[in-house]
Write a structure and sequence with these properties.
The protein is built from 8 helices and 14 strands. With 347 residues, it is of the alpha/beta class. It has 2 domains: 244 residues, TIM Barrel, CATH 3.20.20.80; 78 residues, Golgi alpha-mannosidase II (Immunoglobulin-like). The strands form 4 sheets. Strands 7-8-14-10-11 form a 5-stranded antiparallel beta sheet. The chain has a 4-stranded parallel beta sheet with strand order 1-2-3-4. A 3-stranded antiparallel beta sheet has the order 9-13-12, with no helix packed on it. Strand 7 and strand 8 form a beta hairpin.
Length: 347
């Protein structure tokens, strides 16, 4: 299913804020997935399966703090002038995770109450990038202390569902949820609380156009299964990527992110080609775009549909793309169509 979704990396929750570790940690006695519950090394099994059967990068989410751990509560009462929790729990766990499972992504969280010096983040990251077994491949996020949040890291996450809607100077990630209101699975969630495939792709395209990656959260059931509605969304995105991957994978932001004339059109660039990702299919036979600058050698294609489309230059700047009648069964995809513009004058 993960392969079918088109995902390039997966981030699994090794430990959330309640402190339960999904691996047999030596530093979480009797509160781990081998001691109670499934009696399995969930992190290890998933890591092995992904690394053996796919080319997907395996990442680990880890919460620095724990809501109810007495050591953390004591450190907090001392205004974080003591580091008993960090020295006895957080750092030993992180070193154990990296040395044992060798993740490609370290996704830190639960940092915002204390500064990075308390968490010993600089020392840990120095080890990660210089001496760890993943030093040549690993990527880290920015949640390593309240002074590091949205400031320092391999890429920025800033806050949950971060989607600035404009080009950013740093690499960033939109960590968001398919269920609008929860990171976990809610048995009683109405259908309206889930993003539709169309809405999910709109968020995805906007994120990529502005230079970001999107991390789509899926909350598993208590049995550890993925509910059909999540699977449907993941497979839908994968189906869309099977057609439109050239507009997404290895793309980079263009000089313009969203069109100046037609709403809900976002741009990406791959090699010397510009892609106009249109969220709403034109109601007439013309798609008018204000950002591209054409010349005589410009060609236009609808990705997944054979043949070039005809076009007319707009006065000054812009292009009118003439849409031929396309039978429903010949449409390349159901949502979000990519128009490939080659030979533009403003690439």
């Amino acid at each position: 299913m993960f392969k079918a979704s088109g995902a390039e990396y997966i981030v699994f929750v090794s430990k959330h804020h309640e402190g339960f570790t999904n691996w047999p940690s030596n530093h979480s006695f009797n509160w781990n997935s081998m001691a109670v519950g499934p009696k399995r090394d969930i992190v290890g099994e998933l890591a092995a399966s992904i690394k053996t059967n796919t080319s997907i990068h395996f990442g680990i989410y880890h919460s620095l703090y724990e809501w109810f751990n007495p050591l953390f509560i004591q450190d907090k009462k001392s205004n974080f002038t003591t580091q008993n929790f960090v020295k006895q729990k957080t750092m030993p766990e992180l070193y154990e995770l990296i040395n044992t499972y060798k993740p490609d992504v370290i996704w830190s969280d639960g940092d915002s109450e204390a500064p990075s010096d308390y968490w010993q983040s600089k020392e840990f990251l120095a080890w990660v990038y210089n001496d760890s077994p993943v030093k040549d491949t690993v990527v880290t996020n920015d949640r390593w202390g309240k002074d590091a949040h949205c400031q320092h890291g391999g890429y920025l996450t800033c806050h949950d569902r971060y989607n600035p809607g404009k080009l950013q100077p740093r690499k960033w990630e939109n960590a968001m949820t398919i269920d609008r209101h929860s990171w976990g699975f809610r048995r009683n969630a109405p259908l309206s609380d889930y993003l539709s495939t169309e809405q999910l792709l709109a968020t995805f395209i906007e994120t990529v156009s502005c230079g970001g990656n999107m991390l789509m959260n899926v909350g598993p059931t208590k049995e550890g299964t993925i509910h059909p509605i999540f699977e449907e969304r993941l497979r839908d995105v994968g189906s869309w990527l099977n057609v439109n991957s050239e507009a997404i994978r290895s793309s980079r932001p263009w000089t313009t992110q969203n069109d100046t004339l037609t709403r809900r059109v976002w741009y990406t660039m791959n090699s010397s080609n510009v892609y106009a990702l249109v969220l709403d299919w034109p109601t007439g036979s013309t798609l008018s775009l204000g950002a591209p600058m054409t010349h005589s050698g410009t060609t236009v294609q609808l990705v997944g549909y054979s043949g070039n489309l005809t076009w007319t230059a707009r006065s000054g700047k812009g292009i009118d793309i003439h849409i031929p009648p396309i039978p429903t069964n010949k449409m390349p995809c159901k949502w979000a169509w990519a128009f490939k513009l080659s030979g533009l004058g403003n690439i």
